[in-house]
Amino acid sequence: MKILRISGIKLSLDESEKLLAHKVAEILDISVNDIDVVEIIRKAIDARRHKPPHFVYVLKISVPSAVKLPVSLNPGIQLLEVEAPPEIPHLLSASGPKLPVVVMGSGPAGLFAAYILAQRGIPSMILERGSPVEKRIKDVEEFWEKGILNFQSNVFFGEGGAGTFSDGKLTNRANNPYSSWVKKILVEMGAPPEILIEAKPHIGTDKLRKVIVNLRKSLMGLGCRIEFEAQVTDILIRQETIAAVIINEKEEIKTNHVILAIGQSADDTYTKLLERGIQMEPKPFAMGLRVEHPQELINSIQYGKWHHHPQLPPAEYFVKASLPDLNRSVYTFCMCPGGSVIGCAAFPGSVITNGMSNAKRSGEFANSAIVVNVRVDDFASGKQPLSGLNFRQVWERKAFVSGGSNYQAPAQRMTDFLQGKENGVLGRTSFLPGVKPVAMKEVLPEFIINPLSAGIREFDKKMPGFITPDAHLIGVETRTSSPVRICRRSDGQSESIRGLYPCGEGAGYAGGIISSALDGIRAAQHLIDNLN
Ligand SMILES: Cc1cc2nc3c(=O)[nH]c(=O)nc-3n(C[C@H](O)[C@H](O)[C@H](O)COP(=O)(O)OP(=O)(O)OC[C@H]3O[C@@H](n4cnc5c(N)ncnc54)[C@H](O)[C@@H]3O)c2cc1C
User: Fold this and answer.
1) Residue closest to 258 by CA, chosen among 220, 224, 232
2) Interior CA angle at 365 toward 319 and 345, to 5°?
């Protein structure tokens, strides 16, 4: 038998997957009896507005060794003999250290670092400042419904990290063999199996919350200890090596190994780390607004006259424009079909926006961030490591005050924003705890506002209909990625302190659920290598 990987196999929206073997037989000009479709590796939708949308597959097939394959293939079809599956890098099992390994943070980076360590016989102690998912859901709902913010248990802090209240998109550009392993673990924990094959997989916050509870149980079964409402408030260092962490300003846990997976929103922890001499530097990030359209409109823009077809999922989009005259680029980010725009304040007196969807993405609205690149020299105080944190706080506080100082967000119709109209009336939006009409130029700096306005006009050329009075801009979107990097050496340890492994989004080396999980895995591998 020969195992082959064939890509570019198309099915119309109305055709059944049972036809895949026939399509392949036709393309390879061999009998359908000689083909066994072993596995669907990937399934994507090709929707280019003026052509009927269709599904495109990558398949693993087997054919008898004697079968002669065609020398040339139609354009768009690729055939490869499959070699051995990509190797997951071999990990030596390690003898555990004398003191427990501490994992700071239970986001994707911390959880997957702990998972790898536990699998190698080094169960760790996970310290999470926020609450377990069950309590966290209540805290977040209370914030969305009543504007009462819990500073330790919110959209950024708590079990599962920043992505727990999200669309659960699992896209990742890195070609890392662990990507599919992470997805497999997520499926074992209850995520839908389709995430293994879809080109743009997503879980949805409703399912993700259950997956995280199962991951917790599984980690505990592997011997991990998980402490919630356990904020690491200080670290003790002896001879440039980590010696202990302090929980909630009182309890000391002795340790020589800490996985630092704190995400990008723990400004107090960054400040403490700086005080303790941990080397950090400012890094560029991006800032802007959320835009919300009726999903139906996005479907019709993206799918054209086929937009009512029942096989088509709520449409997504990604658009970008480079603006050489303004020396900036603007792009959409973290698009949530059928979702809602959510308030994510992490400290008192701030308004921060982001997006979230359920697994079915069946909501009435489509939202996405529209952001502009922010360079390090845009920060008021130059090279200070934490100046980016201060910079984004200024705009988050401004948004809070503009919104009425009650966690409502400033919002403006897109057309009013583009026409410079200041006192427009708002239509309906999904944002909780509510929106207040405000001219967006009040809540962001000019170097962001001008590119946003130029960028939206460019997007409308690529997606005609994008500019509409039915779209609202809601601000401000500041947490696209960390404005700080915690410097680390090639062996994964902090530049300044031995035994400290900065990783994930907060360390400035990852952004997104999968890439943060992969970076956590990398940190755990380094720790194991260094132990060995
Ligand atoms: C609303 C929203 C929607 C998103 N949607 C998506 C999406 O669809 N797809 C995607 O790929 N990405 C999405 N992201 C981004 C993604 O969630 C992050 O990139 C990812 O969670 C980062 O993982 P992490 O483990 O590095 O950090 P985090 O997930 O931020 O986890 C860090 C954890 O550390 C804890 N912590 C912080 N300081 C301390 C301390 N001192 N002591 C103890 N614990 C501490 C925090 O409470 C937190 O739980 C979204 C983010 C948000 C906020």
Assistant:
1) 232
2) 85
Supply the mean pLDDT for the chain.
93
User: What is the DSSP code (8-state) at residue 94?
Assistant: -
pLDDT tens digits, residue range 290-324? 999 999 999 999 999 999 999 999 999 999 999 99
In this prediction the pTM is 0.94
Q: Ligand 1 centre from 26 Cα, in Å?
A: 47
Residue 34 CA to residue 22 CA, distance in Å, equals 10
Q: Which residue has the tokens 């039915």?
A: 470
Per DSSP, 79 falls in state E
Task: Please confirm whether the linkage preceding 433 is cis (ω < 30° from 0).
Answer: yes
d(CA 210, CA 227): 19
Q: Are 245 and 258 in contact (CB under 8 A)?
A: yes
Q: Is the CB of 157 under 6 A from ligand 1?
A: yes
**Tell me, what's the pLDDT at 73?**
83
Q: Is ligand 1 within 6 A of the CB of residue 485?
A: no
Residue 354 has phi, psi (to 5 degrees) of: -165, -175
- Other C-beta atoms closer than 10 Å to the C-beta of 455 total 25
pLDDT value at position 177?
82
Domains of the chain: 2-81 (3.30.70.2700), 101-280+484-531 (3.50.50.60), 285-477 (no CATH)
Report the pLDDT value the prediction gives residue 87, as an integer from 0 to 100: 56
For residue 506, the ligand 1 atom closest to its alpha carbon is 26
CA distance 499 to 243: 9
Low-confidence ranges of the chain (pLDDT < 50): none
C-alpha closest to that of 472 among 522, 413, 518, 419: 413
- Which letter does DSSP use for residue 241 in this model? E
Annotate 344-383 with DSSP letters as a single string. ---STT---EEEE--TT--SSEEEEEEEEEE-GGGSTTTT
- Residue for token digits 């973290």? 334
Per-residue pLDDT at 91 = 55
Q: How far is the CA of 530 from the centre of ligand 1 (A)?
A: 27
Predicted confidence at residue 86, as pLDDT, reads 54
The minimum-distance atom of ligand 1 relative to the CA of 164 is: 17
Is residue 256 within 6 Å of ligand 1 at its C-beta?
Answer: no
166 lines ligand 1 (CB under 6 A): yes
Ligand 1 center–CA 156 separation, angstroms: 6
How far does the centroid of ligand 1 lie from the alpha carbon of residue 78, in Å? 38
Which residues pair with residue 282 across a beta bridge?
484
- CA–centroid distance, 487 to ligand 1, in Å, is 19
Per-residue pLDDT, 278 = 97
Q: Best mutation site among 513, 518, 519 for ligand 1, i.e. most ligand atoms within 8 A of its Cβ? A: 513
Question: Rounded to an integer, what distance in angstroms lies between the CA atom of residue 256 and that of residue 248?
Answer: 19
